[in-house]
Amino acid sequence: MDVTPGPGAGHGAASITLERIRKRYPDGTEAVRELSLEVKAGELVVLIGPSGCGKSTVLRMINRLIEPTDGRILLGDDDVTRVDPVTLRRRIGYVIQNVGLFPHQTVAANVATVPGLLGWPRERTRARVDELLELVGLDPGQFGRRYPHELSGGQRQRVGVARALAADPVVLLMDEPFSAVDPIVRTRLQEEFLRLQAEVRKTIVLVTHDLDEAVRLGDRIAVLSEGGRLEQYDTPAALLGSPASPFVREFVGADRGIRRLAVTPVTREVLDPLPADGGADLPAVPLGGSAYDALGGLLTSGAEHAVVTEDGRPVGLLSRARVLGLGVLD
Ligand SMILES: Nc1ncnc2c1ncn2[C@@H]1O[C@H](COP(=O)(O)OP(=O)(O)OP(=O)(O)O)[C@@H](O)[C@H]1O
C-alpha cells in the first residue's frame, strides 16, 4: 500500500481523503448525504456531533466494514474500494467502545491476532507483543497471560489499543475508545494515549460524544450534523474561538470560553514586566503551559498575579485579568 508521509508523520502513516462519500442504507436512511474530508498523515482528527449524525458510519466506511453508496476514499494514493477488504483491515487498526477482545484468549494472544494472520514468525510476534504491552503501560510478564475478564476496564482498553497497533497499521480508527471507563481513568487513558501518539504518530480518526475529549485529543475536530453534514473542520482553539455556524456555537456550548483556556497557551504577548523583586512570593506557571492551568494556579493560591517561567527562570508577570481575557470570545 502506498504511504504518503506528511510533516511530522511517523513511519508508515498514510493520509485519508474522503471525496464526496455518501451512505444510503437499504431501508432508505441517508446516514451520510455527501462528505468530503482530508486527514493528513500523522494527524489525529476527531469526529463529533449529535447521536445519529453518521459518525460511526463514516468511520466504518474507511475500513469498509460498511460500503459507501457513492464517492471515493483514499488511503495515501490508493482507492480503498480497489483493495481487498481483508487486506485493507490488516493495514487499519480499529478500536471500539467495549474493545471487543476475544474472551477465551490471553492478552498476549489477543494482541498477536493480526501478526498471526499475517504469518509472522513466533519470535517476531512475541517480541512485538511485549513491546506493545510495554508501550501501553502493561507489564508483559504480569498481564500477557491473563484473560480479558481478569483486567480492569481501563486495562482492557489499553490491550485494545495495543492490539490495534500490533501490525503497525497505516491508520487507526477509534470509535468511542475511552467511553466505557469512569472519568478519572478516562482522563489518564487520554493522557497516556497522547503520549503514545507523540511516539507512534499514526493517522487517527476518533469518534466521540465528548467535547472535552475532542478538545484534548484532536489536532483538528470535524463537527458533523445530521446526515453527515460537515459543519466545521478546525483546530480546537479555532472551533471554540470562532464557531462557524449557530449549530456549532450551540454544540460547543456556553462554557466554550473555559474550554478555550484549556487549549490556549500562555505566551510572551500577554505578560507584564516583572516586579523589582522578581515576584519571589508569587505562584509560578510555565511559559507555553495552558491558560486554564495558569488560572487554576492563580485561584488556588489566591494571588492576583503569577510569575511565568521558562526553563525555571522568570520571564514575566501574568495577571488574572489577562488570563481571563484569553477566554473571551467574539
Ligand atoms: N444498518 C443500518 N440500517 C439503517 N440505518 C442505519 C443503519 N446503521 C445506522 N443507521 C442509521 O444511520 C444514521 C447514522 O448512524 P451512525 O451510527 O453512523 O450515527 P452516529 O453519529 O455514530 O450515532 P451515535 O453517536 O448515536 O453512535 C442513524 O440515523 C442510524 O439510525
Automatic annotation (TrEMBL):
SMART domains: AAA. InterPro entries: AAA+_ATPase, ABC_transporter-like_ATP-bd, ABC_transporter-like_CS, P-loop_NTPase. SUPFAM superfamilies: P-loop containing nucleoside triphosphate hydrolases (SSF52540). Keywords: ATP-binding, Nucleotide-binding, Transport. It holds the Pfam family ABC_tran. Residues 16-252 form the ABC transporter domain. GO terms for molecular function: ATP binding. PANTHER family: OSMOPROTECTANT IMPORT ATP-BINDING PROTEIN OSMV. Belongs to the ABC transporter superfamily. This is ATP-binding cassette domain-containing protein. It comes from Micromonospora fulviviridis. The lineage of its organism: Bacteria, Bacillati, Actinomycetota, Actinomycetes, Micromonosporales.
